[in-house]
Design goal:
- The chain is an alpha/beta fold and 309 residues long.
- It has helices at residues 14-25, 40-49, 84-93, 113-120, 163-171, 182-203, 207-212, 214-233, 240-249, 260-266, 273-286, 292-304; strands spanning 5-10, 32-37, 51-55, 58-62, 66-68, 77-80, 103-106, 125-126, 129-139, 142-154, 176-178.
- The strands form two sheets. The protein has a six-stranded parallel β-sheet, with helices on both faces.
- Strand 7 (103-106), helix 4 (113-120) and strand 8 form a beta-alpha-beta unit.
- The longest helix is centred in the middle third of the chain and has 22 residues, at 182-203.
- The model has no long low-confidence stretch (mean pLDDT 96).
- The structure holds NADPH dihydro-nicotinamide-adenine-dinucleotide phosphate (NDP) and ketopantoate (KPL).
- NADPH dihydro-nicotinamide-adenine-dinucleotide phosphate (NDP) binds at residues 10-16, 37-40, 42, 81-84, 86, 89-90, 93, 107-109, 131, 133-135, 137, 272.
Length: 309
């Protein structure tokens, strides 16, 4: 690799802060420049004191040389780490940092993030992507990595000139791979996040409370079955083996764990509801499916939010 490559991260919260901190803290010799795009208090606090990053019992202060709150010309790679509900507006706000040479990596818990970004930046090379991570925003400019390797799976980029990016991420301790079945992996992750988010938010239960109560476990399985049917109708073969996998996988989390969607509903915010619950119901109905458990739980969530059902 000869010329300096430029990576932009849009949204410096739980995910963007984790990636940005890992990249800036690594002693990587490759000629790569990393830029943070933040806004509001995140921008002000990082500018004033740096990004506070906690991980593995250690606290680091990270001082990005390149921190902006508005666009700055095209980048080689743009990682978009906003919440799902901010994705479209953020992509519009930063459309001119993505040209036809740019690889775009949206990391939302959505199955159609790439489709949405392509609608706004049709020239860019937009990947299907997801990240396996638990990293929370403590306050703007302060991020705590709680678990998960931060592994990123993407679809395989067109052309052969993006190898440096995968090498760079891996060398910085962010395992990253391009896979032909990336969208299948994203649907599989969504099978877990959407269903667990929905049941924990509707009934205000911790992960432990879902698996210890057979009635609640049964409802969770029904949600997973409904989502697996939707995935199948979209061409992704998810089914009983995946559901069994997640019934075991949830036991790796501390019993008191709560989903981030549940925490949003607890404070009266609808958070990513449109993308975790409404999307499933709407797409299922369009496909002639009957997501009855999702509809029941959506009514409970709406009641918790004080929305008339
Ligand atoms: N946190 C995690 O461990 C994981 C999260 N995910 C998914 O990743 C996505 C991001 O989650 P997370 O990092 O937790 O979210 P956070 O809310 O912690 O971070 C999002 C950040 O993006 C900023 N942002 C939004 N719009 C813009 C913009 N136009 N310009 C600059 N910054 C902007 C927000 O600023 P502001 O506060 O001003 O809106 C906020 O700082 C979600 O879809 C989530 O479901 C996936 C796997 C793990
Ligand atoms: C892994 C899990 C389910 C827990 O934090 C999550 O990512 C979320 O709630 O969004």
């Amino acid at each position: 690799m000869k010329a300096i490559k430029r990576i932009a991260i849009v949204g410096i919260g739980g995910v963007g802060g984790f990636i940005g901190a890992k990249l800036l803290l690594s002693s990587n010799a490759l000629p790569v420049q990393v830029t943070f795009f933040a806004r509001n208090d995140a921008y002000k606090n990082i500018r004033k004191q740096g990004l506070i990053f906690e991980s593995g019992g250690k606290m680091d202060m990270v001082h990005p040389q390149h921190l902006y709150n508005r666009s700055k010309g095209a980048y080689d790679v743009v990682i978009i780490a906003t919440k799902s509900y901010s994705l479209e507006l953020a992509t519009k706000a930063y459309a001119d940092i993505m040209d036809k040479q740019t690889l775009v990596v949206p990391l939302q818990n959505m199955v159609n993030a790439a489709e949405l970004v392509k609608g706004v930046a049709p020239e860019a090379n937009v990947l299907d992507a997801c990240i396996y991570l638990i990293s929370n925003l403590i306050k703007p400019g302060h991020v705590k990595h709680l678990g998960g390797p931060g592994k990123i799976i993407t679809s395989i980029p067109e052309g052969s000139n993006h190898k440096w990016f995968y090498e760079y991420m891996n060398q910085a301790g962010i395992p990253m791979e391009g896979r032909a079945d990336a969208l299948h992996q994203i649907w599989k992750k969504y099978l877990f996040i959407s269903t667990l988010g929905t049941i924990t938010a509707a009934h205000d239960l911790s992960f432990g409370e879902v698996i210890k109560d057979p009635k609640m476990t049964h409802i969770w399985i029904q949600l997973m079955e409904e989502l697996a049917l939707l995935a199948q109708s979209e061409g992704f073969a998810l089914g009983a083996a995946d559901i069994d996998h997640f019934l075991g996988f949830i036991r790796d989390f501390p019993e008191a764990s709560k989903s981030s969607f549940q925490l949003d509903i607890d404070i009266g915010s609808k958070g990513e509801k449109e993308f975790l619950v409404d999307f499933v119901i709407q797409r299922s109905l369009e496909r002639g499916l009957e997501p009855l458990t999702y509809i029941d739980l959506d009514n409970l969530i709406n009641r918790r939010l004080g929305i008339d059902v």
